[in-house]
What does this fold into?
Amino acid sequence: MVSGKNNRVRLNTFYGNGSATSKDSSSATNSNNFGLGLFGASQNNLLEKNKIGGNINGLYLGGGGKVTGNIIRRNVILGNPPAEAIRQFGVSIGADIQDKAASPTTPSPNMFEDNHCLIYAGAGPSPCPNLGEHEEDAEQDAVGAFVRNRLASQARVFSAVYRLNSPFRPKAARFAASGEGPDSNSVTVTGKVVEAACFMMHAPAATRASHRDCGAACLARGVPLAIATDAGVLYFSADGNQRLKSLLNARVRASGTVLEKHDTMELKMPVGDKNQMVVRVEGGYKQITIQILEKIPPAKRGAA
Amino acid sequence: MTQPLSRRITLCVFCAFALFVCGARAQANDISGTINTTLVLYNDSELSGDVTCAVPLTNAGPNPCISFGADHITLRLNGHTITGPVTPPTGCSLPSDHMFGVGIAVLDRSDVKIEGPGIIQHFERWGVLVGLTGHPNSEVTVKKVTAHHNCWSGMQTFSTTDSNFEENVFTSDSSGSNGAGCGGT
It folds into this structure.
């Protein structure tokens, strides 16, 4: 894929592709062939639940600094390169994930999550080896199918309006001040990075593991993310999704200045291939200009 | 018994027009056999049998076996196979070649679909080409297609957005890319 944006590459099989003798230059140690590759300005694509095995490289992310914002999750990327290629050309000829997009200065321009893989070649934090169980597959598939079927039989465009002072707004979407206080400009908030539209519709579902696929798909299509505090207060980042996109579903601590916005905001959420749901936020919202952002590791969550 | 000359001419013109229309519809909707010149689709179409491609490389750029000429249409492979002229790595395209063969091309299109099951194999460069630099696409779906043993990538996409590529199989492609960065997709 060259300069593709907002595409979904899901549930495909990539087996036995590529030649070990194909290289970018005679001095290159690795082959430039692969099972699945992203090059040029390929951005905000979702690569999910693919099976990638027996290729010279499994997943290849090209260099140049423009392969960014892609979500790579829940793929099985194993057996790349095959043993015979390693025997003849050496272990550096390929890898499960060949990551030229990462560099020491931009270590994680793309998000890796829950991929089964063993060999990573690149400058970023290695997402491999990872052989964890995907015990939630069946649950997620069932929930996804249920939602798709339900929504497909309804209107093409869904619209919901939430007003700050409405008695009907969902509990989780409250914008009332919690411990942070609306008058204080400098705050430190702790919460989970969520896909905002779904969170306001149904907070428990948005924070559940079964929503991960949907949330990632929404992120790939530009739905805003926000930090949801334990009190249900949402903080939208002033720079859009730029700093939060690699932290979807992660628990974070953010320090910065908060601004109360009073304009109406529309959150558009894709539903299936053609439809979309529009959630309109009226009555204002909180926008945080993040100065310090840190991911809270699971081990520290109890103290957070 | 004998018809006036003007009526016979009218009847012949009508019959010729009807044959032309029926022929074009049959070509677009019902595809099988050998294709010698690029088949351009303007309507929903499907394979009714296996296809052998023998499109000569006469134009600069891609010389597809089948290409999409309209938006909002679907090509269904119906379990059949589209086979190109080469057996990789023999006969594969070089990066310096200005003319090259591909199986199916989608260029400058929106909302089109290629639906399997079906196999696309043995092409000089790509099995499926979705977009080129300067020829972007959007909302393309390629689903349940098997791209096998093509010289370069099984499917190559350029400048394509908001598209779905799902449940496809890419296997044994890119054995003859001659140095180009290629693979399954």
Summary: Residues 5-171 of chain B form one domain. Chain B touches chain A at residues 89, 133, 139, 141, 153-154, 156-185 (CB under 8 Å).
